[in-house]
Amino acid sequence: MLTPRGAFAAAEATADVIRALVAARGAPELRTDPALVAHLYATRAFAPLWLDAGRPNRRARDLIAALRDAPVHGLDAADYDAARLADETRLADAHPPATPAEAARFEAALGAGAVRFLHDLHLGRLDPATLATDYDQSAKHARLVALIEELAGGTPIPTVVADAAPPFLQHLLLERQLARYRALAASAEDAAGPSLAIGATVRPGDRLAAAAGLACRLALLGDLAGDAALSADTAGAAGRYDGALVDAVRRFQARHGLASDGVIGPTTAAALAVPLAFRVRQIELALERLRWLPVLPRGRAVVVNVPGFEALAFDDIGAARPPALRMPIVAGQAFRTETPSFSRPLTRVVFAPYWNVPTSILRTELLPKIRRTPGYLAREGMEITRAGRVLAPGPAAIAELARGAAELRQRPGATNALGHVKFLFPNPYDVYMHDTPARDLFRRARRDFSHGCIRLGDAAAMAHWVLGGAGLSGARIDELLAATAETAVALRDPLPVVIAYATAVARSDGTIAFYDDVYGHDVDLERALAGRRRLPY
Q1: Which in 275, 321, 336, 491 has the greatest CB count within 10 A?
Q2: What global pTM score does this model have?
Q3: Which helix (H) or strand (E) holds 421?
Q4: Are residues 363 and 426 in the same domain?
């Protein structure tokens, strides 16, 4: 047994080897940013973190447990060498490292696994910028350094892990659903596969041979429960599609971004047949994107989820309560004018706005109509301007418009494409939220029809929420909504707007919604994760 003097000398020697190991950048098992590993140990003068007198300490065991629990967060424990490090910990329990070099390698490998895990849980496994996602993560990088210092300073491992995770209710809800759907995917019912040979379109009241299989599937997913399940079982045994079974299909459709009409057409049948392992992967990808989000201050925020075609307003984005406002949206058209993922502060609300027609829309859509249809400009309330001066409509003005010497704008009014109000959060994509007179599109389940901007299903409610929270009275907001002259209101305290992309969204009521990968971004993310490589060390 080492004397205190001998233990001190061994620790000193181990610290020297750790310092040399980190500086040399030659240990393949570290596989992470060497500066972060160096910082972890530099805060302790390179003294061991995980070994006491040559044996793994309690914090080492807590860390191993956290690494092995990485799948709870939608991460892969193998990325952090959890199984190998657990084996080495057991070995070190029985046979402590005999030399400072062995102790240092164990120390550095476990420390590097911790750094990789905290990085991935806090920032995500991929840089969002590589997937055309514009979130400012600079504050999160600084926070990662602080988390590493917490780790080095003795903060309990569960506390550090909780501090690293995204501070949003959605993260907790998604983790719960991930556990649930993993269990469902592994269940005998899912493994056997439901009997869902539905065939032709089925409407309420129709005969359905697969009614019993459908009832089983919906019960498994939670859309059919309790007495309703018993009623549906009876209907299923009789081969009828009616009553509780139809109601359950409507619930299923609503959760999957489909028209909730109870009609089982090809799209609904396909959604019912999706393997639950695929749903598990959707949740994991949604968790990855949640980790990309920038630091958001506690307080009000707007989140737009493009695949779900909805906007949500939160009174407190960091609180464990559901959104104060939820509404449908129309987003950019898939593969043509997609709405980008980014975050910027909302700074102004403009009532009775002019629509300054973008050049791309002018050239590809409106110029042909202007040339082809006499009176088009007057009918649509449009005017040609140059240097802020309105030109008399006619061939000369149209010619100037065509060669880029003039601009086209639409006056405020009933036909204005932006409706009664727009919400500006300046960004390089010229994307904003706005009202719209085209109400029919909101009746569709899939709503990617815009040129990239976000059309709100209830812009008046959004105006009341944004400006009511900024101190304006409801009566004054109503006056502005009824205005005919353009009026801008600046927000004294800008609030964050996050344009997000998630095909799985967990709800506070214990349900989860799944949406189509309308832009193919999940496919891109899956490919990037499969092809990623750790930083060589």
Answers
A1: 491
A2: 0.92
A3: strand 421-424
A4: no
